[in-house]
Design brief:
The structure is a single chain. By secondary structure, this protein is an all-alpha fold. Helix content is 92%, strand content 0%.
Length: 237
C-alpha cells in the first residue's frame, strides 16, 4: 500500500530530475542571449551575405529551447503543487521545507528565463532596425553617408552590448555558484531532518533539555529576586 510519505519521496525524485534539466536549459538559454545568439548572428549573416536559411536554423533552435524550458517549468510547477498537497496530509515540517525550496527554485529560474528572453527580443528588434536601414541605404546611393553613419553607430552599440554581456556572464556564474551552495545547504537540512525523524526519542530528549533549561532559568531568577528583596529589607527595614 502506498503511503503519503512514499508518494512524496517519489515526487521529490521527479522534481530533482526536472530541476537539473531546467538548470541546464536555462543556462544554455542565458548563454544564447549573452553571446549574441540569433540577433547578433542575424547581423553577421547580413554582413557576410550568407543565406537566411542558416539564420532561420538558429532561430528555430532558440524557439525550441524556449519551448522546452516552458514545458519543464510547467511540469515542475505541477509537481510542486502535488507535493504541497501531500505535505498538508503528512503535516511534516521537512516536507513543507522541501516544497518551499522547490517553489523558490522555480521562481528563480523563471525570473532568469524571462530576463534572458527580454534580452533576446531586444537584440532582435535592434537587428531588424539596422537591417532595414542597411537595405534602404543600398537601394538609395545618395543616402550612402547616412548608412555608413548608422553602421558606425551599430558597431558602437554592439561593442557596448558585448561589454555588458561579459559583466552579465560573470554575474550569472556567481549566481549559479550561490544557487549550488543553497541547494547543498537545503540537501543537508533535509538530511538532518531525516536523521531527527528516524532516531527514536531524539525529539523527546531535545524537549527535555529545553524544559530543564527553562526550569534552571526560573530558579536562578527566583534566587536573584530573593537576594534583592533581602538587601532592600536589610537596608531599609
Amino acid at each position: 500500500m502506498t503511503t503519503p510519505s512514499s508518494e512524496f519521496d517519489q515526487l521529490r525524485r521527479e522534481a530533482t530530475k526536472l530541476e537539473r534539466q531546467l538548470e541546464d536549459r536555462v543556462s544554455k538559454y542565458q548563454l544564447f542571449s549573452t553571446n549574441g545568439g540569433g540577433d547578433s548572428a542575424a547581423l553577421d549573416y547580413t554582413e557576410m551575405g550568407l543565406s537566411s536559411r542558416q539564420n532561420g536554423a538558429s532561430d528555430n533552435n532558440h524557439e525550441a529551447l524556449a519551448s522546452e524550458i516552458q514545458r519543464t517549468m510547467s511540469a515542475l510547477g505541477n509537481l510542486t503543487g502535488n507535493m504541497a498537497n501531500i505535505a498538508k496530509r503528512t503535516n511534516s515540517a521537512q516536507h513543507s521545507l522541501l516544497v518551499k525550496r522547490y517553489r523558490e527554485i522555480l521562481f528563480d529560474y523563471k525570473a532568469d528565463f524571462e530576463k534572458a528572453a527580454q534580452a533576446v527580443q531586444k537584440r532582435r528588434e535592434t537587428a531588424a532596425l539596422f537591417h532595414g536601414a542597411g537595405r534602404n541605404g543600398s537601394l538609395n546611393n545618395e543616402d550612402g553617408g547616412a548608412t555608413e553613419h548608422l553602421l558606425r553607430e551599430r558597431n558602437a552599440i554592439n561593442n557596448s552590448i558585448k561589454s555588458a554581456d561579459t559583466v552579465l556572464s560573470q554575474a550569472s556564474e556567481i549566481r549559479a555558484n550561490l544557487r549550488t551552495q543553497r541547494n547543498s545547504l537545503g540537501a543537508s537540512m533535509g538530511y538532518v531532518s531525516n536523521i531527527a525523524s528516524n532516531v527514536p526519542g531524539l525529539n523527546h530528549v531535545m524537549d527535555a533539555i529545553r524544559r530543564k533549561k527553562s526550569r534552571d532559568d526560573l530558579i536562578l531568577s527566583g534566587v536573584i529576586a530573593t537576594c534583592i528583596l533581602f538587601t532592600l529589607w536589610y537596608l531599609f527595614g
